[in-house]
Structure formats: C-alpha cells, structure tokens
Amino acid sequence: MFIVSIICESIPDISIIIPLYNQEQFLIAAVRSIELQSLQNYEILIIDDQSTDNAQEVIKHLQQLNNRILNILLSENQGPFLARTKGIINAKGKYIMFVDADDYLNSLTIMQQSFELAEEYSADVVHFNEKLQETTGESAFTWANPLNDSIQGKYFGLTQWMLNGQGTALHGKLLLRNQLLRALVLIENQDQNIFQTKLYCYEDILLMTAFYVLQEKYVPLLEFGYTYNVRTNSISKSSIAQYDKFIKRVDDSLIVYQIIKQMLSGLSDELQRNIHYQFFKYMKSSILEIALYHQDDAEKKTFICNKLIKSNILIEEFQNKLKSELCGGIAQ
C-alpha cells in the first residue's frame, strides 16, 4: 500500500481523484470543472502515473492557483487500478468522486447535490447521469443513467450489475470513502498479489463490484453531472490496433473475473450464472475487435479464443457460440 503525508487544515467533504497518464491537454478543463463547483470544501488528488508529456508542469501550475490540489507522482507506471488505489488511500474526504483527466463535471452543483443527498440519506453511493461524447464535442448522448429512480438498499448495485451489466464505471458517482477502503481490503483478501498487479482494463468493474458487495444504500440523482469523452488513443480503443494490448486486455479480464468469482462465491446459482454472462458480453466485444483487425491472421485469433475457452470464463452454452460466430470455427 502507498502512504503520503498530507496536512489539511480541515477535512474535505469530497476528495476528487484524477488518475493521469499523458493527458496534459485535457487536465486544466477537468480541474476547472471542479473548481467552479458550488461546493468548495474539496481536495483534488492528481495521481500522475509517470506521464511522459508535460503533465508535471501543468499540475505545478495548477497548484500555484489552488492549494487544494495534491500532486502525487508514482515512481513507475503502474496502471489506473494502482493509481486510483493510491488516491483512495491518501484521500482525506468523507466521500470520493473519480474524474478522468480527459473528462469533466458538467453541472456546477453536482458535487453539492450529491453530498447533500448522501448526508441526508446516509448513502454510501449517489449515482447521477452521464453523457458520452467524442472529444470533438460531437455525438453526445446519454450514456449511464442511474440504475433506478428511487432509493434502494443493500446489494441493489450488485444485482443490477449482474443482471443488466450496468453501474460498473467509477465516474458518475459519489462514493463513501470508508466503503472504498473496505472494498480494497475485500479485493486483497481474494488475491494477495493484486496490489502488485498492473491492471489497465476492467479495474473499474473490480472495484465497483467489491464496493457493491458492501453497499448499504443507493441513492439516484437524475441530474447530468459528468461528461465522458471518447478518445481514439485511450487504452481500451488503442488495443484494437496493437496485438500485445489485446493480450493484456484479455489477461486483465481473466484476473478480474477470478477475483470477482471468488468474492461472490456464496451467491445463488442464478447470480453466479449472471457473472459469467456479463463477462461473456465484455469479452465478446474484445474478440469481435480481434476478429475484425486480425481477420487474415488465423493464428492470432486462435490463440486468443483458446485462451478464453480454456479459462472457463464462459458458460457452457456460449462455447460453441464463441467458436462459430466470433472465431469462425477455428478455436479448438
């Protein structure tokens, strides 16, 4: 685990965690969207995962203008899971909000509204609306609505994720910090080496699943508070063009799947089945991308397909579906 000595004059209501890797051109807008919020008792933790651009210069400039910004530079590139973990551990706020460096809050009152709802209802998660758009500003549309329009109790978020595949993103939510810390402990109990593992994909699913296991009260907020920008060179998108990143993407999914499977082993057979189903949907997308990009490279497609099939990540009825529809019958 990571420890940084931080001196605060008062405990912030909200800690905003911004994991950063080579996104200096977007960072100022993300930070500005936080600074303009009506709620001003906050801190911003920027976790620089060894960016190779001018991110450190930008962060230091921002710190000169705002003493509530903390600059945490990792000693080596560790991936978004460990970057966010370090942010959670070093945060001082009662609640945490995650903002990606290339995204922004698009409501000036979203932090205030979320905080007040969480306090009023003793909620450990307040979930608000998001918009997804290209970084050009085009093609904006509603992406992740709250899972329900009424206050819900224990396991609601977990059930919705398993049944509908919804609510697994870390952004678009206000989360109780103590529950996030417990979620990290729960994850480590399933895999003692997870905090030495560089996860680049599916880390949000892992953390939110653990959080939902512990979640006591879910409160929806029907307000558009977050804009998620789609970039063609993001980790998930750039993997389409690079075979080694395909492999990493699949490997990360298998690590996350095994931890979640152990974490939820006491659940009913139906929910266990739904765990498999949701992961199949995620991996189906990855394999489709492989099939499209490497359509003339049977060896590479076979390797990936067999890797998935032998991992037992897919429920039995989808084995033939994977072979015939996604891998063209080449997987054995």
TrEMBL record:
Superkingdom as given in the UniProt entry: Eukaryota
SUPFAM superfamilies reported for this sequence: Nucleotide-diphospho-sugar transferases (SSF53448)
Domain Glycosyltransferase 2-like: 15-123
Keywords for the protein's UniProt record, in alphabetical order: Transferase
GO molecular function: hexosyltransferase activity
Residue ranges that the Swiss-Prot or TrEMBL entry lists as coiled coil: none
InterPro entries registered for this protein in UniProt: Glyco_trans_2-like, Nucleotide-diphossugar_trans
Cited function: Dolichyl-phosphate beta-glucosyltransferase involved in the glycosylation of glycoproteins through the synthesis of dolichyl beta-D-glucosyl phosphate which serves as a sugar donor for transfer of three glucose residues to the Man-9-GlcNAc-2-PP-dolichol precursor to N-glycans.
Protein name: Glycosyl transferase family 2 protein
Organism: Hexamita inflata
Taxonomic placement: Eukaryota, Metamonada, Diplomonadida, Hexamitidae, Hexamitinae
